[in-house]
Amino acid sequence: LSQPALARCFATGFVINMYYLAVEALVVPAAKFAFAFSPLQISLIYCGAAVENLAVTGLVIVLSKCVSDSTLLAVAEIISCIALAFVWWTWTYDMPFVMLVLGEALIAPLAPLAFPANRSRLTSLVHDSHIAGFMQGLYAGVETFGASLGPVYLAATLGDPRVADGRIAARTAPALMLCFLFLLAWEAASAITFTTGSPPARQAQGPGAPQSDSESEKLT
After folding, report:
1. Per-residue b/e over 10-24, b at no fewer than 16 CB within 10 Å?
2. CB–CB of 124/212 below 8 Å?
3. Rounded (5°) CA angle 92-97-101
4. Phi, psi angle pair for 190, to nearest 5°
5. Backbone phi and psi for residue 81, each to the nearest 5 degrees, phi listed first
6. For residue 110, which of 11, 25, 24 has the smallest C-alpha distance?
7. Residues forming beta bridges with residue 73, ordered by sequence position
8. Which of 108-112, 127-131, 162-166 has the highest mean pLDDT?
9. Distance CA 133, CA 93 (A)
10. Which residues contact 164 (CB under 8 A, 6 or more apart)?
11. I need a labelling partner for 5 at 20 to 30 A (CA). Which of 84, 163, 211, 219 fits?
């Protein structure tokens, strides 16, 4: 992929899908081995996360009218880093139940914050290209690959449930956190470049110039 903004969309789509499926799946062994929860009790945890997702989705609908896609993605990536750090240090097989609830509350907002914002940014980059349909299909494939890899990655890195005070995500969280820190650094570098290099071009284009934060990086 030749355009950095487009490559960033694909990298972000892969990481957020891998993270979301891996860390959401982490709730099952955490609840099962730490609290001996039944499948019904575990499903109630996911129901609570779904309610939180609906609330955050409503907030995103309001904020999207005045906040850029890149800003929403940066917020999602920061929250995800905080969630990973929290889960890394506090989720053990003898943790109190409140830690499970707080961790899931930090994990859940990623989906409504990041998924639509990243898809919107991709659409703004490719919608006037003759390969727009191909790029959208390719992006869906990258998302699916990340989602498929997430549970596999979790299974390979899950902490040993036979160790009561062992950290459940001791091997799962660090690599994912590094991925999000990399994405944040990429977003920051792109924002700095856009801020320092874009305004003169916009002034030259006149008042009819597109206002999207990704418009200057569209495919041709």
Report:
1. bbbbbbbbbbbbbbb
2. yes
3. 100
4. -65, -40
5. -65, -40
6. 24
7. none
8. 108-112
9. 46
10. 92, 93, 94
11. 84
Give the long-range contacts of residues 39-47, CB within 8 A, separation 24 or more. Answer: 45/100, 45/101, 45/104
- Sequence-separated (6 or more) residues with CB below 8 Å from residue 27: 42, 45, 46, 100, 104, 107
φ/ψ region of 91 (left if φ > 0, alpha if ψ in -120 to 50, else beta) reads beta
For residue 51, is pLDDT > 90?
yes
Q: Give the pLDDT confidence score for residue 194 in this predicted structure.
A: 53
Q: With CA atoms as reference, report the closest residue to 190 among 67, 65, 66, 74.
A: 74
pLDDT of residue 206 exceeding 60, the answer is no
The mean pLDDT value of the chain amounts to 83
Identify the DSSP state of 167: B
Token representation of residue 165 = 């005070």
> 11 falls in which pLDDT band (50, 70, 90)?
very high
Angle of helix 4-35 versus helix 110-126 axis, rounded to 10: 160
Query: What is the biggest distance separating any 2 CA atoms in the chain, rounded to whole angstroms?
Result: 66
